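Write out the 3D structure for:
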Amino acid sequence: MVNSSQSVSARRAKAISLIQTGKVHSQTDLVTLLKKSGHQVTQATASRDLELIGAVRTRNKAGESTYQISESDDAALARSTPLPAKLILSVDHSANLAVVHTPPGAAQFLASSLDHAGLTGVIGSIAGDDTIILVTKKATGGAHLAKELLAYANSAEKRK
């Protein structure tokens, strides 16, 4: 079973990339293109996604009306998929690696959020079902990253 949060995140990321191509002239176009990409959506869902990612209709150089995103694409994605701190169950580290444990099925969603969060010094992530490995640039960066992720998860828990 696909995690619904994961599919929402993936759908919105795909919508952003489709808008970047300049081929999205209407909500109907977005629905059609998303369906071709494997995301079954209604026009109402596409409309909400367009609003959430900050897409607006503008005229291109040819005078055609197309959707554009006025802010950076990373900012649009981050706004559409905020970092879900409650998914961080535990964090461990070794050398330049941080290992994050999540509830079953949540690792890919959290990894995508972490990838788009712009964490300083992180090269990338690998996600399984309930575990994420984050790789840092520094040979000893895993400990600092683990501490940063735990502090974020704990501060989010305290805000509740």
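The longest strand covers residues 122-127.
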